[in-house]
Structure formats: structure tokens, C-alpha cells
Amino acid sequence: MKVSIDMGSTQNGGPATLNLEELLATRLLVQGNSGSGKSHLLRRLVEQSASWVQQAILDPEGDFVTLAEKFGHVVVDASAHSEGALQRIAARVREHRVSVVVNLEGLDVELQMRHAAAFLGGLFDADRDFWYPMLVVVDEAQMFAPAAAGEVSDEARKVSLGAMTNLMCRGRKRGLAGVIATQRLAKLAKNVAAEASNFLMGRTFLDIDMARAADLLGMERRQAEMFRDLERGHFIALGPALSRRPLPLRIGSVETTGRTGSPKLTPLPSTAPEDARDLILAPGEPEPLVRPSVRKPMPPPPQNMDILFQLAQSRPVLSAPPEEVEEQGPEVDREPLLDDILRKILEDQEAAFRSVAVLYQDFLVRCRIHKVPGAPLDLAAFKRRLSAARAGVRNETADGPEWEQATVLAAGLPEDIQGVFLLIARAAIEKAPCPSDAELARAVGSRSNGRARRLLSYMDQRGFVVTRNDRGGNRIIALPGLGWETAPGDPNAADDPAAPQGGDLFDVA
């Protein structure tokens, strides 16, 4: 079934239509300077397609929340939820096929990037059974996929750019169609912009942006000047869902309005100059008296001869005096301290879903607070210790030769998969039931059971594990390289049996 969306009118007065099914397969990039009508275009597209396809809108300015009353979108206030909660919300959005507006207003830029990345990650990691077609609209995309480093941390930029790249590069097979809008193409990461096959280019003034817009539309450089002459709401369209040749069009009207419209001139209030002066210069509450601090005069700088005398008198201390060595206490065993710090970090339920880099920084800070002696662990040693902790290894198991064999064999896998293999190995050593999909997903910091199954297939293809089912449908995983296997276990069991099941769609408590 072909569904055509009315976007407005062409230069000749005919209808400007957009093939929705083609858009879902080829994605869309909208570019235009501030005031060119990008938000109006996105609103028109969302309103016209609301009854045909599920939608998710990342709204950094809270401008699209007005869609809720007219079209039934659920508004998710990102400032009221953690990153892990947004991932769970995104999974439920895909499962129940609910259109949402993620309102990022009220967060600073770095938190907006982190929360947007968490939500996009939840959409991307949804189970294969819920890969329904979905339109993902991202306004001000240059904020979430910047071309260069800015004032935010490198980690926030990395996770946000990775989520946007997944959306535009790998989202199609998962039913996700990215629609991104940006003020400047030069500020948008090229690997994100290059994945769009449909373009709507609005008014642009800078030469570098006009040149990139002309290149994307297949126009000659001398034709790029036309982008300066476009009026508000006028765009040049190109792409399989729009037109095979550059087509000027004008975006039609919308049914809803944003909370922040264009500034309009209003007459100034008629206030007498005397009254205006009283309003502006009215005395406020008396401020507390602050006594100025008295600085002591700085001593005069030493003369050159004094400095030379001090250097001549100084002697480097090569070793501690014998009496000091005798007074030092016994050497502290730091291994229990490191294990205790790591255990406290992992007691937080959200720790399993944080990146290794964040956990490593937290670990180093706690080591300094507790004054752990010796050089700090490097990242590689921390990853090995973290994998063992996530696998839930007991002390007696970790001290045995079997666990050492398992860690040696796990070294042949990528670092992000080693935790899954060690979790299976621990269950095999202790003759425990086979871990469920939820437990395996948690070991790699994911809430997607589908990802756990894909990792098992990956290890099965490379001969690290062999999976089979018993007569009751329970799963048994064998480790051919070690000659062990787990006890039967339910692959569909919940990660936390005490956790409530079902409930409200957005109940993330």
C-alpha cells in the first residue's frame, strides 16, 4: 500500500507529496538557518503521518509537546527520569507502539545528549518481535551528532554520536527511520548526514553550508546562491520519497502550534518616565554588610644570594632513616579493599548499565577516598576484575584452577562479550542453572534479551559454547574448550524475580 503525505505545494501550484513507505526506508535530512521554517516542516510531517506510523520525537526545546492534545502523543519529561529509566521507557514504547515526545527542555546540553542517547539506545536494542516501523524525528541534530568536539565531555559526545549513527546507519533493519533537522550542515557529523537519501534544504547564508547543500542535491556550485533567496517555509526537495530532481516547494499549514513561536512586534507600554524610573530603581531589601578582608602584606622576595644559599644548604633525602623504617606498620593487603570498593559500586542497580569508562572513573575516585595503597589498577586489570564481579564469582571459585582456565579461554573473545562467557563458566563450575537471557544481557550492560541471544549465537558460531534444550524446554550451555556444562535453566526467567511485572507503560519505578 502506497501512502502519500501532503507536504504543501510546488512552485507550479501542484501538490507536494511525500511517499511515506519510501521515507521509512531511505531517511530524511532537513537543513536551514534559524527562522527558515524547519520546525514548521517537521510539525507538518508529523501531523500528516501521525495516523499512519508510530512516531518518537526528540525535542530539545519542548516545542512539540503540543502534539499530545491533538494527536495523542505521550510526553516524556526527560528531566524526571534517569538514563536507565529512559531505556526502559523506550523498550515499552516499541512494545506497545505508542507515539511519544521526549521533552529534553530543562537539561543542560551534556545531559540532553546523554538522555537522548539512552532513549535512542532503548529503541535500537528492542527485541526483534517489536521491530515495527517507526519515525524518529530529531530536531537540532547538530547538538546530538556534532562534527567536532565542543564544551561537553568526550564521553557524552561519544555516546550521543554513537546513538545517532546507529539510528541513521543501522536503524532501517530495525524499523527505525531517522528524520533529522539541523541549522548548519557544517556542524553535523558527516557519517550521520551521509546516510540520508532524502533532503529538504531551506534558507542558508554561509558559503560552506550552501556548497554542501548544493553537493547533496547534485547541483552546480554556481546554483548554490539560490539558497539565500528562499523565503521562510520554502525548501528545495530531492530524494526517492520526494522527487528525482531538485523540486522547489512550499510547506503547508499545520493544525497545532509550538509553545515558542516567532517573535512579533508589540507596542511598548505607555509608562510615564517618572513611574518607569521608580519601577526600575526601586530600592530592594538591604543587603548584609560584608566586611572587607584584610590581607597581610607579602614578604619581600628573597635576593639572589639568599636563594643560592638555600639551594646550597638543601640536601636530597635518598632513603628514610632507620628508625622511621622500623616504625612503619605492616604492609596492608589491598586486594580485599579493591574487592569491597567494586562490590559497593555494583550494589547500585544502574551500575550494570553504565559504560566501563564511567565505572572505572568511579572506581579510581573511591580508591583515592579510601586511601588504597599502591599504584591504581589500569583499565585492562579493572575490566578483568569487573567481568569476574559481574559474573557473581564466589571467592572459593575464583581461587580455583577451573576459574583460571575460564579466564584464559575468555581472553579470546572481545572484551564486551567476556563477561557473558564468564557468567556461563561460573554457572558451569558451580553446577548452577543456566543463566537466563535477562541475566546474560545484564552482564553486557543491556536490557535487551534479543542482544543476549545474538551474543550466544556469536559464541556458538566460533565454538566457545554449544547450546541445547532438555525435554522440559530448559536450556543447557556446554563449554567445549573446558569440558563443562551448566545445569538446565529457564532462558525466559526474569533477571530479578522479585521485580513487578507488567504495570503502567511508563511506570519505571
TrEMBL record:
Q: Which domain of life is it from?
A: Bacteria
Do the record's keywords include ATP-binding? yes
Q: What is this protein called?
A: ATP-binding protein
Sorted keywords for this record are: ATP-binding, Nucleotide-binding
Using the UniProt annotation, give all residue ranges assigned to the region (Disordered).
253-273, 485-509
Give the species: Skermanella aerolata
User: Could you tell me which residue ranges the Helicase HerA central domain spans?
Assistant: 13-70
What molecular function terms (GO) are annotated for this protein?
A: ATP binding
Q: Which InterPro entries match?
A: ATPase_Atu1862_pred, HerA-like, HerA_central, P-loop_NTPase
**Residue ranges under compositional bias (Low complexity)?**
487-509
| Matches recorded under SUPFAM superfamilies | P-loop containing nucleoside triphosphate hydrolases
